[in-house]
Amino acid sequence: MLDDVDWRGKIFSGGWVAAHGGTLPVTEPATGEVLAEVGQADAQDIDNAVQQAAAAQPAWAETPGPERAALIRRVARLLEDNRAEFEHWLVREGGAIPPKAAFEVDLVLAELWEAAALPTQPWGHLLPTSEAGRESIARRVPLGVVGVISPWNFPQILSMRAVAPALALGNAVVLKPDVNTAVAGGTLIARLFEAASLPAGLLHVLAGDAPAGAALTEHPGVAAISFTGSTAVGRLVGEAAGRTLKRVSLELGGNNALVILDDADLEVASSAGAWGAFLHQGQVCMTAGRHIVLDTVADEYIDRLAARAAQLPVGDPFRGEVALGPLINAKQLSNVDRIVTSTVSAGASVRAGGKYADLFYEPTVLADVTTSMPAFREEIFGPVAPVVVVSTEDEAVAAANDSEYGLVAAIQTGSVERGRAFAARLRTGIVHVNDQTLNNDAFAPFGGTGASGNGTRFGSAHSWDEFTQWQWVTLREQAHGFPF
Ligand code: NAD
């Protein structure tokens, strides 16, 4: 799809245009090769985009729902027909193994089909009225211009889960993808909507760094910001949105517990642990970052997890068949290494991995970890499984809840009732019994608590709350007088 347009070095804002902010290299993390250049937005580009979006949005809001739904369905079909190109960029620019790329495109498709169903659902309800002869209606209206800021780890789904429902419900969108995945999470999405004939001005895609994100967040013409990224940046976005009185959705970091109870099947539990900790090099908000194990099964769990880690091949996912690709960049690598090194210095032992070459970090299992060590306290965002051993179920609950984050948890147990009772004691936005932590359904309420987010939820019906606002409308056949 990209070959059909002149996208190189450009942003998508009223067509493919040069950015005032210049250009950015698109780098393959596995090799360091520069694959292309895209435009880099600055505050002026953001301002231009918001103004165009605001001008285009009212007519889109008036467009009949079935037409908006048809547009989203065309986008989904184009993605189905061109998915190889989308997966290619996820692999080369994002460092994904091909199955992760295919999984992500499947998630995007599911998101699009759900979004396509929104415009033809009821937009409000008739209310009772306190005055005879008056009709009273609550109706949903679009917000206007929605700003979407997305990260690099699952760049297509984390952009599309906001872009598609926001557009479906009559908004215009300005999307700022992360510079590490500007093509996978931005350019390709722009191209899809362009090829599907979205009317001009309704979607702008501008890659850029913190200044572009801050300009979007501060812009008075933006009604709402949908942000997915780190907790540190989420706090800044939340502050700016508060100052400018914008609606803000914050989907932030996670430090998720995978709890292994003493009646778990350890063959299955260690497989869940390896998948949860190492998929996409642990660079997922839902990664199993804290493995909490009851003492009677701890040695066997650690042995099995370490054996699984040791046999997972790491390397260039475009040129070889590997289980783990590279970390996204040197900054990410040095943070993972800092957390592992300082945790080992504090007394933890390395049972697998703990080493790296270039951006390739080996899947790592740390034993003898306590709840005060950095690998337990911090979100690592790398392929590291720190294991903490506890002696009672109460201690396991306390350890699982001992985090400022609250995105997801998972429990492995031989008894679903024991799992259900354990789950009820956790304060996460999501919890899975006899599973691992990485799960997504486009129609389930996705979101976290505490430092993981501000209570916002993604997922089909929840999009109504995120991307529309209520208007109370009353109607009388005839106006009437008042005592004054
Ligand atoms: P990040 O916060 O560094 O960047 C996210 C986005 O914010 C990028 O587009 C970036 O350019 C932009 N940005 C940076 N500074 C900004 C500013 N001052 N104002 C506005 N925007 C700004 O995060 P990251 O490193 O790209 O992503 C990893 C983080 O995202 C992890 O913490 C991960 O857990 C989290 N995450 C959360 C979810 C979720 O759904 N809860 C999903 C995926 C990732």
What does this protein look like?
This protein has 484 residues and is an alpha/beta fold. It has two domains: 2-252 and 453-472, Aldehyde Dehydrogenase, Chain A, domain 1, CATH 3.40.605; 256-433, Aldehyde Dehydrogenase, Chain A, domain 2. The chain contains 15 helices and 23 strands. It has helices at 43-62, 65-81, 83-92, 98-117, 155-168, 183-195, 210-218, 231-243, 266-278, 295-310, 330-345, 374-377, 393-401, 416-424, 463-467, and strands at 10-12, 16-18, 23-27, 34-39, 124-127, 134-142, 145-149, 172-176, 203-205, 224-228, 247-251, 256-260, 288-294, 349-352, 356-357, 360-361, 364-367, 384-390, 405-406, 408-412, 430-433, 449-450, 468-476. A seven-stranded mixed β-sheet has the order 14-17-18-13-12-20-21, sandwiched between helices. The chain has a five-stranded parallel β-sheet with strand order 9-8-7-10-11, sandwiched between helices. The chain has a three-stranded antiparallel β-sheet with strand order 5-6-23. β15 and β16 (360-361) form a beta hairpin. The longest helix is centred in the N-terminal third of the chain and has 20 residues, at 43-62. It is globular and about 80 Å long. The model has no long low-confidence stretch (mean pLDDT 97). The structure holds nicotinamide-adenine-dinucleotide (NAD). Residues 149-154, 158, 176, 178, 209-210, 213-214, 217, 228-230, 233, 236-237, 251-254, 285, 379, 381, 407, 448, 452-453 line the site of nicotinamide-adenine-dinucleotide. Belongs to the aldehyde dehydrogenase family.
